[in-house]
Protein backbone atom coordinates (compact mmCIF):
# COMPACT_ATOMS: atom_id res chain seq x y z
CA UNK A 1 0.00 0.00 0.00
CA UNK A 2 1.44 3.44 -0.92
CA UNK A 3 2.40 5.26 2.28
CA UNK A 4 0.79 8.69 2.37
CA UNK A 5 3.17 11.48 3.20
CA UNK A 6 2.69 13.31 6.52
CA UNK A 7 1.93 16.46 4.54
CA UNK A 8 -0.51 14.93 2.10
CA UNK A 9 -3.00 12.53 3.67
CA UNK A 10 -4.08 9.47 1.76
CA UNK A 11 -7.78 9.64 0.94
CA UNK A 12 -9.04 6.23 -0.12
CA UNK A 13 -12.63 5.97 -1.30
CA UNK A 14 -14.61 2.72 -1.53
CA UNK A 15 -18.11 1.96 -2.85
CA UNK A 16 -19.44 1.08 0.60
CA UNK A 17 -18.55 0.79 4.29
CA UNK A 18 -17.72 -2.89 3.98
CA UNK A 19 -15.09 -2.32 1.29
CA UNK A 20 -13.74 0.66 3.22
CA UNK A 21 -13.57 -1.31 6.47
CA UNK A 22 -11.94 -4.30 4.77
CA UNK A 23 -9.16 -2.14 3.32
CA UNK A 24 -8.71 -0.29 6.61
CA UNK A 25 -8.50 -3.59 8.49
CA UNK A 26 -5.76 -4.85 6.18
CA UNK A 27 -3.80 -1.62 6.57
CA UNK A 28 -4.26 -1.65 10.35
CA UNK A 29 -2.97 -5.22 10.54
CA UNK A 30 0.03 -4.28 8.38
CA UNK A 31 0.87 -1.37 10.71
CA UNK A 32 0.39 -3.53 13.79
CA UNK A 33 2.61 -6.30 12.48
CA UNK A 34 5.30 -3.79 11.45
CA UNK A 35 5.22 -2.31 14.97
CA UNK A 36 5.47 -5.72 16.63
CA UNK A 37 8.31 -6.64 14.27
CA UNK A 38 10.16 -3.44 15.11
CA UNK A 39 9.30 -2.88 18.78
CA UNK A 40 7.82 -6.13 20.03
CA UNK A 41 4.53 -4.40 20.87
CA UNK A 42 1.81 -2.38 19.14
CA UNK A 43 -0.35 0.29 20.76
CA UNK A 44 -3.68 1.04 19.06
CA UNK A 45 -6.30 3.62 19.96
CA UNK A 46 -9.87 2.55 19.25
CA UNK A 47 -12.55 4.97 18.14
CA UNK A 48 -16.11 5.00 19.37
CA UNK A 49 -19.33 5.70 17.52
CA UNK A 50 -20.88 3.37 14.96
CA UNK A 51 -18.62 3.58 11.92
CA UNK A 52 -15.85 1.36 13.36
CA UNK A 53 -18.28 -1.51 14.08
CA UNK A 54 -17.73 -3.05 10.64
CA UNK A 55 -13.95 -2.83 11.03
CA UNK A 56 -14.04 -4.32 14.53
CA UNK A 57 -16.24 -7.20 13.36
CA UNK A 58 -13.77 -7.98 10.56
CA UNK A 59 -10.89 -7.95 13.05
CA UNK A 60 -12.92 -10.32 15.23
CA UNK A 61 -13.76 -12.77 12.46
CA UNK A 62 -12.22 -12.91 8.98
CA UNK A 63 -8.99 -11.15 9.96
CA UNK A 64 -8.69 -12.32 13.57
CA UNK A 65 -5.75 -14.64 12.98
CA UNK A 66 -3.68 -11.99 11.24
CA UNK A 67 -3.43 -9.67 14.23
CA UNK A 68 -0.76 -10.47 16.86
CA UNK A 69 -3.22 -9.92 19.72
CA UNK A 70 -0.78 -11.08 22.41
CA UNK A 71 1.46 -8.11 21.55
CA UNK A 72 -1.28 -5.56 20.93
CA UNK A 73 -2.33 -3.02 23.57
CA UNK A 74 -5.73 -1.40 23.06
CA UNK A 75 -6.55 2.09 24.32
CA UNK A 76 -9.49 4.42 23.68
CA UNK A 77 -9.54 7.87 22.13
CA UNK A 78 -12.63 8.91 23.99
CA UNK A 79 -15.39 7.58 26.19
CA UNK A 80 -18.87 8.58 27.17
CA UNK A 81 -19.05 8.99 30.94
CA UNK A 82 -21.46 6.10 31.48
CA UNK A 83 -21.03 2.63 33.01
CA UNK A 84 -18.97 0.18 30.94
CA UNK A 85 -22.07 -1.98 30.38
CA UNK A 86 -24.15 0.96 29.14
CA UNK A 87 -25.13 0.60 25.47
CA UNK A 88 -23.78 4.12 24.85
CA UNK A 89 -20.29 3.18 26.08
CA UNK A 90 -17.54 3.03 23.45
CA UNK A 91 -15.92 0.26 25.47
CA UNK A 92 -19.22 -1.65 25.44
CA UNK A 93 -19.42 -1.34 21.64
CA UNK A 94 -15.84 -2.60 21.23
CA UNK A 95 -16.48 -5.43 23.70
CA UNK A 96 -19.55 -6.57 21.76
CA UNK A 97 -18.02 -6.33 18.28
CA UNK A 98 -14.37 -7.22 18.99
CA UNK A 99 -13.03 -7.87 22.49
CA UNK A 100 -15.32 -10.77 23.35
CA UNK A 101 -14.27 -12.59 20.17
CA UNK A 102 -10.46 -12.37 20.09
CA UNK A 103 -7.66 -14.02 22.09
CA UNK A 104 -6.34 -10.78 23.54
CA UNK A 105 -4.99 -10.94 27.11
CA UNK A 106 -7.20 -8.84 29.43
CA UNK A 107 -4.04 -7.04 30.59
CA UNK A 108 -3.72 -5.64 27.05
CA UNK A 109 -7.08 -3.87 27.23
CA UNK A 110 -6.99 -0.35 28.69
CA UNK A 111 -10.47 1.20 28.77
CA UNK A 112 -11.00 4.74 29.96
CA UNK A 113 -12.37 4.57 33.54
CA UNK A 114 -15.92 5.81 34.11
CA UNK A 115 -16.41 4.84 37.74
CA UNK A 116 -14.88 7.88 39.48
CA UNK A 117 -17.58 10.18 40.90
CA UNK A 118 -15.77 13.09 39.27
CA UNK A 119 -14.89 12.64 35.54
CA UNK A 120 -11.90 14.89 36.10
CA UNK A 121 -10.43 12.24 38.40
CA UNK A 122 -11.04 9.63 35.70
CA UNK A 123 -9.30 11.82 33.13
CA UNK A 124 -6.31 12.27 35.42
CA UNK A 125 -6.19 8.53 36.08
CA UNK A 126 -6.07 7.71 32.35
CA UNK A 127 -3.62 10.54 31.75
CA UNK A 128 -1.40 8.97 34.41
CA UNK A 129 -1.79 5.52 32.86
CA UNK A 130 -0.59 6.84 29.51
CA UNK A 131 2.30 8.55 31.28
CA UNK A 132 3.29 5.27 32.91
CA UNK A 133 2.91 3.16 29.75
CA UNK A 134 4.92 5.41 27.46
CA UNK A 135 8.28 7.11 28.05
CA UNK A 136 8.40 10.86 27.56
CA UNK A 137 5.62 13.42 27.75
CA UNK A 138 3.47 12.00 24.96
CA UNK A 139 2.37 8.44 24.16
CA UNK A 140 3.52 7.17 20.76
CA UNK A 141 0.55 5.22 19.48
CA UNK A 142 1.14 3.16 16.37
CA UNK A 143 -2.33 3.85 15.01
CA UNK A 144 -5.04 6.15 16.33
CA UNK A 145 -8.47 5.39 14.90
CA UNK A 146 -10.80 8.36 14.63
CA UNK A 147 -14.27 8.95 13.31
CA UNK A 148 -15.59 12.23 11.95
CA UNK A 149 -18.99 13.47 13.04
CA UNK A 150 -21.36 15.49 10.87
CA UNK A 151 -20.69 18.45 13.20
CA UNK A 152 -16.95 17.94 12.68
CA UNK A 153 -15.99 16.57 16.07
CA UNK A 154 -13.30 13.94 16.39
CA UNK A 155 -12.92 11.74 19.48
CA UNK A 156 -14.76 14.01 21.95
CA UNK A 157 -13.02 17.14 20.69
CA UNK A 158 -15.89 19.29 19.50
CA UNK A 159 -15.71 22.42 17.36
CA UNK A 160 -14.74 25.51 19.40
CA UNK A 161 -14.08 23.37 22.49
CA UNK A 162 -11.44 24.80 24.86
CA UNK A 163 -10.03 21.24 24.95
CA UNK A 164 -8.72 21.86 21.42
CA UNK A 165 -6.23 24.37 22.82
CA UNK A 166 -4.88 22.10 25.57
CA UNK A 167 -1.19 21.30 25.21
CA UNK A 168 -0.30 20.11 28.72
CA UNK A 169 -2.72 17.22 29.20
CA UNK A 170 -2.99 13.81 27.53
CA UNK A 171 -6.60 13.26 28.59
CA UNK A 172 -9.39 15.71 29.43
CA UNK A 173 -12.85 15.48 30.95
CA UNK A 174 -15.19 17.53 28.77
CA UNK A 175 -18.82 18.59 28.63
CA UNK A 176 -20.09 18.30 25.05
CA UNK A 177 -23.24 19.34 23.11
CA UNK A 178 -24.25 15.73 22.50
CA UNK A 179 -25.70 12.83 24.46
CA UNK A 180 -24.29 11.85 26.85
CA UNK A 181 -22.71 15.21 27.58
CA UNK A 182 -19.94 14.15 29.97
CA UNK A 183 -17.00 12.53 28.23
CA UNK A 184 -13.30 11.77 28.41
CA UNK A 185 -11.09 12.46 25.43
CA UNK A 186 -7.47 12.33 24.38
CA UNK A 187 -6.09 15.69 23.32
CA UNK A 188 -4.72 16.89 19.99
CA UNK A 189 -1.06 16.59 21.07
CA UNK A 190 -1.66 12.90 21.81
CA UNK A 191 -3.18 12.42 18.36
CA UNK A 192 -0.36 14.38 16.74
CA UNK A 193 2.31 12.22 18.37
CA UNK A 194 0.92 9.09 16.77
CA UNK A 195 2.77 7.19 14.07
CA UNK A 196 -0.46 7.02 12.08
CA UNK A 197 -3.99 8.36 12.27
CA UNK A 198 -6.72 6.43 10.44
CA UNK A 199 -9.99 8.29 9.93
CA UNK A 200 -13.01 6.09 9.24
CA UNK A 201 -15.81 8.08 7.58
CA UNK A 202 -18.91 6.62 6.00
CA UNK A 203 -22.32 7.84 4.90
CA UNK A 204 -23.71 10.80 2.99
CA UNK A 205 -24.38 12.55 6.28
CA UNK A 206 -20.63 13.05 6.65
CA UNK A 207 -20.10 14.52 3.16
CA UNK A 208 -20.18 18.12 4.39
CA UNK A 209 -17.83 17.71 7.34
CA UNK A 210 -15.46 15.58 5.26
CA UNK A 211 -15.32 18.16 2.49
CA UNK A 212 -14.64 20.90 5.05
CA UNK A 213 -11.93 18.81 6.69
CA UNK A 214 -10.15 17.96 3.43
CA UNK A 215 -10.92 20.92 1.20
CA UNK A 216 -12.15 23.69 3.47
CA UNK A 217 -12.99 26.41 4.22
CA UNK A 218 -12.16 25.35 7.72
CA UNK A 219 -9.78 25.95 10.60
CA UNK A 220 -8.74 23.76 13.56
CA UNK A 221 -11.22 25.52 15.85
CA UNK A 222 -14.33 25.04 13.74
CA UNK A 223 -13.06 21.77 12.27
CA UNK A 224 -10.90 19.81 14.75
CA UNK A 225 -9.83 17.31 12.06
CA UNK A 226 -7.81 20.10 10.43
CA UNK A 227 -5.68 20.17 13.58
CA UNK A 228 -4.68 16.53 13.06
CA UNK A 229 -1.15 16.90 11.66
CA UNK A 230 1.09 14.23 13.21
CA UNK A 231 4.63 15.53 13.76
CA UNK A 232 6.16 12.24 12.65
CA UNK A 233 3.35 10.21 11.27
CA UNK A 234 0.81 9.98 8.51
CA UNK A 235 -2.91 10.48 8.16
CA UNK A 236 -5.05 8.12 6.11
CA UNK A 237 -8.73 8.69 5.40
CA UNK A 238 -10.80 5.55 4.81
CA UNK A 239 -14.00 6.76 3.20
CA UNK A 240 -17.06 5.41 1.41
CA UNK A 241 -18.67 7.01 -1.65
CA UNK A 242 -21.50 8.48 0.42
CA UNK A 243 -19.12 10.48 2.58
CA UNK A 244 -17.03 11.32 -0.49
CA UNK A 245 -20.00 12.83 -2.33
CA UNK A 246 -18.44 16.30 -2.50
CA UNK A 247 -14.84 15.22 -3.03
CA UNK A 248 -13.38 15.87 -6.46
CA UNK A 249 -10.78 13.67 -8.19
CA UNK A 250 -7.88 15.82 -6.99
CA UNK A 251 -8.52 14.83 -3.38
CA UNK A 252 -9.05 11.14 -3.94
CA UNK A 253 -6.06 8.82 -4.05
CA UNK A 254 -5.89 7.35 -7.51
CA UNK A 255 -5.24 3.82 -6.40
CA UNK A 256 -6.94 2.77 -3.19
CA UNK A 257 -5.13 -0.21 -1.66
C1 LIG B 1 -17.95 8.98 19.96
C2 LIG B 1 -16.83 8.96 18.95
C3 LIG B 1 -17.02 10.09 18.01
C4 LIG B 1 -17.39 9.44 16.69
C5 LIG B 1 -18.03 10.41 15.74
C6 LIG B 1 -18.57 9.66 14.51
O1 LIG B 1 -17.71 8.73 21.14
O2 LIG B 1 -19.09 9.20 19.50
O3 LIG B 1 -15.63 8.78 19.38
O4 LIG B 1 -15.91 10.92 17.83
O5 LIG B 1 -16.22 8.87 16.10
O6 LIG B 1 -19.09 11.05 16.41
O7 LIG B 1 -19.55 8.76 14.99
P1 LIG B 1 -20.25 7.67 14.03
O8 LIG B 1 -19.17 6.74 13.60
O9 LIG B 1 -21.29 7.02 14.88
O10 LIG B 1 -20.82 8.45 12.87
Short description:
The protein is an alpha/beta fold and 257 residues long. The protein has helices spanning 17-39, 52-60, 90-97, 119-133, 188-191, 207-214, and strands at 10-14, 42-46, 72-76, 78-80, 143-147, 171-175, 182-186, 196-201, 234-240. The strands form 2 sheets. A 6-stranded parallel sheet has the order 1-9-8-5-2-3. A 3-stranded antiparallel sheet has the order 4-7-6.
Q: How are the SSEs placed, and which strands pair?
A:
Blueprint: E1 10-14, H1 17-39, E2 42-46, H2 52-60, E3 72-76, E4 78-80, H3 90-97, H4 119-133, E5 143-147, E6 171-175, E7 182-186, H5 188-191, E8 196-201, H6 207-214, E9 234-240
Parallel strand pairs: 1-9, 2-3, 2-5, 5-8, 8-9
Antiparallel strand pairs: 4-7, 6-7
Helix pairs in contact: 1-2
Task: Characterize the structure shown.
By secondary structure, this protein is α/β, with parallel strands linked by helices. It is built from 6 helices and 9 strands, in the order βαβαββααβββαβαβ. The strands form 2 sheets. A 6-stranded parallel β-sheet has the order 1-9-8-5-2-3. Strands 4-7-6 form a 3-stranded antiparallel β-sheet. It is globular, with a radius of gyration of 17 Å. The mean pLDDT is 95. Bound molecules: 6-phosphogluconic acid. 6-phosphogluconic acid is lined by residues 47-51, 78, 80, 90, 147, 149, 153-156.
Structural descriptors:
257 residues, alpha/beta, binds 6-phosphogluconic acid, 6-stranded parallel sheet, 9 strands, Rossmann fold
